[in-house]
């Protein structure tokens, strides 16, 4: 038995999606983007010119291009070719021998080729956490959110989301950036994720959440030291009472994306402070003296 030829289908509409049980908020400083098994072998079972593939590919490209500049690491999972029967084990019973060791099968499709600073992990089982270094990579970078896109939604993508949940990692299951065998399988996957182990959202929702979190409007700019402390405390996930004026904000975990966003917005009101100046005294007291005239 092998993967069936996949007939074109339309992505499930938002109206068919069940309500999420959680309302986790994406934080780019805590997230990793997983592009799951987008290898030529698996795409060969689709007509790649027919839905859902064109939309899914475009959405994955959008997600990567907009989240990577926000500091979100990109990890690809890819299965190896010519696995031995011992390596495949029970996968052999369900799906046959799998990929051959040929780049035309094992390679990531051209439209989503990994860049030099992206990571590729070798994947052996449905879940991208099983027998891989994914969990260790995330823990080393102190990241506990995983954005999942790719194929197939009801197999590897869903089991990876469930495994993330069991490792205390918040999974974001992108409903229009995954593809499946059928619309029914696709809908089952996104609804199970929404009800049991993840937050299921669209590409548009994901990118809106990411942009909202990393953008400060002029009306949001702090006008005194206490407001600055409250803003930064919120970014760090602590209360303003827990943050001292002389705490080193970089050591506390404040990421550079938010610092740059803060600088850009202060420039709109005539405050031209550099990142180097902020780095010389990365404290509430130091930044207040540079940015706020009280």
- From N to C, what is the helix and strand string? EHHEHHHEHEHEHEHHHHH
Total helices: the number is 13
- Spatial separation of the terminal alpha carbons: 72 Å
% residues in beta strands: 5-15%
CATH superfamily of the largest domain: Isochorismatase-like
Question: Can you tell me the overall shape?
Answer: elongated
Using only C-alpha atoms, the radius of gyration works out to: 22 Å
- Across the major sheet, the strand order is 3-2-1-4-5-6
Number of strands: 6
Largest sheet data: 6 strands, parallel
Q: What's the CATH class of the largest domain, please?
A: Alpha Beta
What proportion of the residues is helical, as a percent range?
40-55%
Oligomer: single chain
Structural class: alpha/beta
Which regions have little confidence, pLDDT < 50, spanning 5+ residues? none
CATH architecture term of the largest domain:
3-Layer(aba) Sandwich
Explain what you see.
There is one protein chain. With 294 residues, the chain is α/β, with parallel strands linked by helices. The protein has two domains: 31-213, 3-Layer(aba) Sandwich (Rossmann fold); 216-292, Orthogonal Bundle (Non-ribosomal Peptide Synthetase Peptidyl Carrier Protein, Chain A). Helices cover 40% and strands 12% of the residues. It has 13 helices and six strands. The protein has helices at 40-43, 53-67, 85-88, 90-95, 103-106, 134-140, 153-166, 183-196, 203-214, 225-236, 256-267, 275-280, 284-291, and strands at 31-36, 74-78, 119-122, 145-151, 170-179, 198-201. Strands 3-2-1-4-5-6 form a six-stranded parallel beta sheet. Strand 5, helix 8 and strand 6 (198-201) form a beta-alpha-beta unit. The longest helix has 15 residues, at 53-67. The chain is elongated, with a radius of gyration of 22 Å. The N and C termini lie far apart (72 Å). The mean pLDDT is 91. The modification O-(pantetheine 4'-phosphoryl)serine is found at residue 256. It is an enzyme of class 3 (hydrolase).
